Amino acid sequence: MVHATELIVLGLTKTGEKSLVVHTLSPLWGRRSFICGTSAVPLCLPLSLLDAEIAENPKSDLWRAKSIDLVCPLSGIRADMRKNTMSLFMSEVLFRTLRDGTMEDGLYEWCRASILTLDALECDFSNYHLRWLLELAGALGFAPSIEDLAPFAGEHLAVVRNLLGSDLPQSLLIPMTGEKRNAVASLLLDYIGYHTETRLNIRSLQVLREIYS
Predict the structure, then answer these.
(1) How far is residue 121's CA from residue 109's CA, in Å, rounded to a whole number?
(2) End-to-end CA separation in angstroms for the chain
(3) Cα-only R_g, the chain
(4) Residue 213's pLDDT is what?
(5) Whole-model pTM?
(6) Which pick of 21, 101, 107, 194 has the fewest CB atoms within 10 Å?
(7) CATH code assigned to 2-70
(8) pLDDT, the chain, mean
């Protein structure tokens, strides 16, 4: 059986000269990985939105993705080094947070909308990943209150309270130094890791720190 679906790319693992495994989030299966040809590599950038046909394999849980194409080019992200770095961070967080088979209601739709929002923002997006981490916690079922975040926030409680009480446009305009922004990102990752019982060693966070310092 063949299924048509959208996929959000979370990462790639090369398995041979002519094949690779693409780790994805989809509306049909949640977090799941598929095998595909290496010709798909240029399309499978972090957070790429893809259309694909998924062919079931009765002998394996690793089904094949074929007829892969972009849903949209995300040119606003790909043309901006700062947004590209943020998309790398976001995809790694999803890759390390979501277990195979994770199927939270509305998670795919929220994630898709958040990617398109980042793509469309033209300025003042340095805080976007902080807002995104808060919304991710909500999408996974443990939206924080200030009381929940207080044990993680320490000296940054005031800015966390401000961030939590703001809508998206307001949160993007909260003034923060690069050091403060990095500290808030780290504590929000600690909060998410605590609730998912996952140690979130996000390698791209260091790159993000350098770009948004």
Answers:
(1) 19
(2) 49
(3) 18
(4) 65
(5) 0.95
(6) 101
(7) 2.40.50.140
(8) 94
